[in-house]
Amino acid sequence: MTAGAPDWAAVLEQVPRAGFVPDAIWVDDPDGPGFAAVSRRADPGRWSAAVAADAPVITQINRGGPRSAADGDFPSSSCSQPSVVADMLNALDLRPGARVLEIGTGTGWNAALLARRVGPAGRVTTIEVDPGVADGARRALAAAGVAAEIVVGDGVHGWAESAPYDRIVATASVRELVPREWLAQLRPGGRLVAPWGTDHGNGALLTLDLGPRAPRRAGSPGTRRSCGSAANGAACSGGSPARTPSPARPPPRPTSAATTWT
Ligand SMILES: C[S@@+](CC[C@H](N)C(=O)[O-])C[C@H]1O[C@@H](n2cnc3c(N)ncnc32)[C@H](O)[C@@H]1O
Fold first, then answer.
1. With a 6 A CB cut-off, is 158 part of the ligand 1 pocket?
2. Total domain count for the chain?
3. Which of 35, 74, 87, 252 is the most exposed place for a label (fewest CB within 10 A)?
4. Which of 37, 57, 79 delimits the end of a domain?
5. Contacts 24+ apart (CB under 8 A), 243-252
6. Who has greater pLDDT, 79 or 196?
7. How many Å lie between the centroid of ligand 1 and the Cα of residue 65?
């Protein structure tokens, strides 16, 4: 931990993830190829053991739909592994009063940790692609008394409406190139932390510092990229300029009507 950085272990203790994990979770099915549902009500011991473990908790499979005959089950939302969350929060170097954007709200647990750290002078915006998952996070954050802006949309575009951000943290991973909108929405001198190269954070951790006098034109962000701590000991790779090819026609943007405060 760097000098002046928060004691995230204490924050993790103050905001237990049991308050954010839904009653229905999924675990590896020992008798089948996919996942088996575990209900907090029907099997509280197993549910509590899964939530207490230093492992991700799968909170949605198959995007909430049925198993695909071709692909089988796949996890589509989860509550991240606590030790990985702690690594990412340490890498973020978040201070009270900061404005932070989280990509991938999931259960809302990480948003609650961020909100606890930035305090009332700061602001947490979190974006989730799945409306049902976002609703669950909204309920959990409200129950915990946490104020955060929850946006439903594709986080690949960030959320320009609440930019600029002092920090951006992605809980869904970056493959190859960092989206240019994230860099355009980061304040000069700001920091971006993202898992690198896998879907749910088991790869290297990317820490990217935007230069203090970075130009504000998206596409030439003037970045300095460095490897922070690595979640699994892997080094991050690639030194190409951080940019993402623009599609011929941009996908529809979420509207501000999709933004709510809890
Ligand atoms: C590892 S989980 C998030 C864990 C979460 N931060 C927590 O504290 O529980 C990743 C989340 O990112 C969401 N996601 C995946 N792709 C996304 C995208 N393009 N934009 C926004 N959210 C996305 C998934 O639906 C999933 O809920």
1. no
2. 2
3. 252
4. 79
5. 243/177, 243/178, 243/180, 243/219, 244/156, 244/177, 244/178, 244/179, 244/180, 250/157, 251/154, 251/157
6. 79
7. 17
Kindly state if the Cβ of 6 falls inside 6 Å of ligand 1. no
Pair (106, 209) in one structural domain: yes
Domain that holds residue 68: 13-79
Residues 129/147, Cβ–Cβ less than 8 Å: no
Residue with tokens 């320009």: 160
Residue 224 lies inside a defined structural domain of this protein: yes
- In this prediction, residues 144-153 reach a mean pLDDT of 97
CA of 105 to the centre of ligand 1 (A): 5
User: What does the pLDDT look like over 104-142, one tens digit per residue?
Assistant: 999 999 999 999 999 999 999 999 999 999 999 999 999
Q: Is 218 inside a domain boundary?
A: yes
Active site residues: 80
Chain-centroid distance, C-alpha 249: 26
Per the domain annotation, does 53 fall within a domain?
yes
Considering 79, 111, 132, which residue would you say is the last residue of a domain?
Answer: 79
